[in-house]
Write a structure and sequence with these properties.
By secondary structure, the protein is mainly alpha-helical. Helices cover 77% and strands 1% of the residues.
Amino acid sequence: MAAPPRRHALLAVAAAGVALAAADTYVVVLALTDMMEGVGIGVDALQRATPIISGFLLGYIAVLPLIGRLSDLLDRRRVLLGCLVVFVVGSAVTALATDLGVLVGGRVLQGIGGGGLVPATLALVADLWPADRRGTPFGVVGAVQELGSVLGPVLGAVILAWSGWRAIFWFNVAAGLILYAAVRALGVGVLPALPSARPSAVASLSSSRGPGLRGRGAESGIGRRVLVWLLTALGLGLAWLTLAQPAALVTDVTLGAPFVPVVGSSPLVAPIGITALAVLGLLAVVTAPRWWATLRRVDLFGALLVAVALGSLVLTFASSDPEREVVGPWGYALLPFGAVALGVLMWWHRRARDPLIPRQVVGARGGRSLVVSLLVGAALVAVVVDVPVLARISEDYDATGAALVLVRFLLAVPVGALLGGWLLHRLGDGLVAGAGLLLAAAGMLVMSGWTVDSLESPLPTTAVLLAVGLGIGLALAPVNNAALADSPAHAHGVASSLVVVARMVGMVVGLALLTSIGLNRYFAAVRQLPDPFDTEALVAAGVVQVQTVFLGGALAALLGGLVAFTLGSRRSAVAVADEPRFVGL
């Protein structure tokens, strides 16, 4: 097993990455209008900015199972490093973007890199700690993820106070590079899950080659590395010029010609952009021997089906306007398409020799853990979205004041996550998660009776928000622990990714459904008003909408708590037998 100081240091660095990615999820809310202006979209065309948010969610969710599977086949540290690189590149692309398509592409990359950090970090915990000691580390991961959501808007406000929106993403680049250096400095080695990939197998293969072959291979390897570095430098340099659009070059009569788009207005279709993409494509071909062998061991067809099914779901609900619809404008085409992909995935899952999601993962307590995580996401988003709405309806709070009301809840969630992790090996997964979600359900039931006057009583309001946040936080570590405890060691990455996906899907779908139901009640109440311009009556109708969302969140928490109790307190035989994969720290 890893020495405690080194494993704690690795967990701290990985958790910091999770917090950074979580902060980036919420920081965009404050900077959205500035970002729209930066890519030429007026504030009166807010619907065109939807992909800026949905693009991040799409990247965050759609490829998580693939990243989780890769983390089961590779050194977890390499996966962390790869995710940090993707996050840094995505942040840089976003910071440089002057076109909506480029901006959305950068956000998708940010989502892929930031989302991949979560299952890799959870899998690290399963590797570094025995099954009966994972509670507190799981609690730490859950706590920093929620803490990141609290600090995100604060960080954005601080940066925007002295600089523009692009500085937010340059901060991400700097922070990501620091974390990358820290992970590399720890020098952790991980034995891959498959015996054929273990270092001993590689060493025996190398020793079987003759000295002449080894010498020629070394020379060829040096030449290939030089070529890779040259292509990388050239590709990144051209990409930077394409996105940065230096004024001294773009405005020059001669030097500006390569920056003129061939068609449309995107810089990517300018000669210099096309050249940059061609060089980066050649780099991918040259480096293919290093990554294609690994991808061949992954169920790529299954990963494609998962991405299509999840992507269809996210885009359907993320693009909807809750005031008019539950299903977004693309939904009537995307949902059937996603359903077909899901059906094919279920068929392929039964037939594939080595499916993307190992068959042992979704059985036993794993499936029930995913249900609980889904319902936790729905309950969580109900509070996060509608507490500020209720505060703004009262007209006694501005945007900052409404955010401060929500902070009472958000600060309680990481505390609950730490407490839930600490209680795990004392009370068991089911009791901790079930009791926590019942506490959250009770608190949200009280909130479903709140009016605009309720916020004027800070002590009872704070007590309820703290109770709900604490209850939701208590469920985070037990859900992760139950899913991983009943999964084999070679599938911990996939199991972790599915828990995260379920929670995010619960948030996306829950927000659309609950808000739509609440708005239907709001408009029904407005239609019954004798005077449609009566301000007090309109406020009362708005309160009905918020109360409906809180009631729906309470129901989700209640159902989640009942399912959570079935997780029990037992440890699976597989988990007890698991040995840490980390060696030689």
